[in-house]
Amino acid sequence: MRSINRVSLIGHLTHDPKVTRTKDGIALATFSLATNRRYRNDAGEWVEMPDFHRLVAWRKLAELCERFLHKGAALYVEGRLSTSVWKDSEGKRKEQQEVVVTSLNILRLKGDKIQAEELLGKEEKLVSLAAKEAGKLAKSIKGAKKVGKLLEDVKVKVVASA
User: Fold this and answer.
1) What are phi and psi of 87, to 5 degrees?
2) Cβ(91)–Cβ(99) under 8 Å?
3) E strands along 41-153, which residues?
4) One Pfam annotation, family name (predicted)?
5) When you count CB atoms within 10 A of the terminal residue's CB, does the N or C end of the chain come out lower?
6) Any long-range contacts for 107-110 (C-beta under 8 Å, 24+ apart)?
7) Is 27 strand, coil or helix?
8) Please, are residues 118 and 147 in contact by the beta-carbon 8 Å criterion?
9) Quick one: residue 155, left, alpha or beta (phi over 0 = left, psi -120 to 50 = alpha)?
10) Nearest to residue 95, comparing CAs of 106, 83, 111?
11) 109: three-class secondary structure by DSSP
């Protein structure tokens, strides 16, 4: 049986990406994305709770993150879940789940519309399509599903792949 490991997130960057390089010179960007979930509390009031997701991007995508992403930016991210395992300075085993980013789009919120920002590099033309047609961003789960479906319908394209 085939398995699926796919993550799609829309949220805001909590800090600028930190880019490091491996011994072989491969770029690695690490950053965090905040998403909100809504639920009704016992009193029947809507409450928003943030979730924070650790993201990593490799190679050319990491370099693009360094160039174009800044704290507070709205993003649509696709990737896969991965677990990093290492030993700390005391020799204890540590694990951390993260999303390995395979594609992303920088989003701009204008009023109640989502628009994709175009990224144009000197050497490459990286155009982020979609979201112009995403329609109104509602404040309900139904509205979020509608936006997700619209983004799917207009085929959100990969800005760059890892």
Assistant:
1) -110, 135
2) no
3) 46-58, 74-87, 93-110, 113-116, 119-120, 125-126
4) SSB
5) N
6) 107/10, 107/74, 107/75, 107/76, 107/131, 108/74, 109/74, 109/137
7) strand
8) no
9) left
10) 83
11) strand
* d(C-alpha 130, C-alpha 109), whole Å: 13
What is the reported pTM?
Answer: 0.62
CA distances from 7 to 77, 81, 162 (A): 8, 7, 15
CATH of domain 7-153: 2.40.50.140
How many residues belong to the chain? 162
Which amino acid type is present at position 108?
Answer: R
What residue has token string 């009193």? 43
Residue for token pair 């590099």:
121
Express each pLDDT in 115-144 by its tens digit. 444 333 322 333 333 333 333 333 444 555
What CA dihedral angle connects 57, 78, 116 and 155, to 10 degrees? 140
Whether residue 127 contacts residue 157, with contact meaning beta carbons closer than 8 Å, is answered with: yes
* Among candidate residues 162, 66, 80, 83, the one with its CA nearest the CA of residue 121: 66
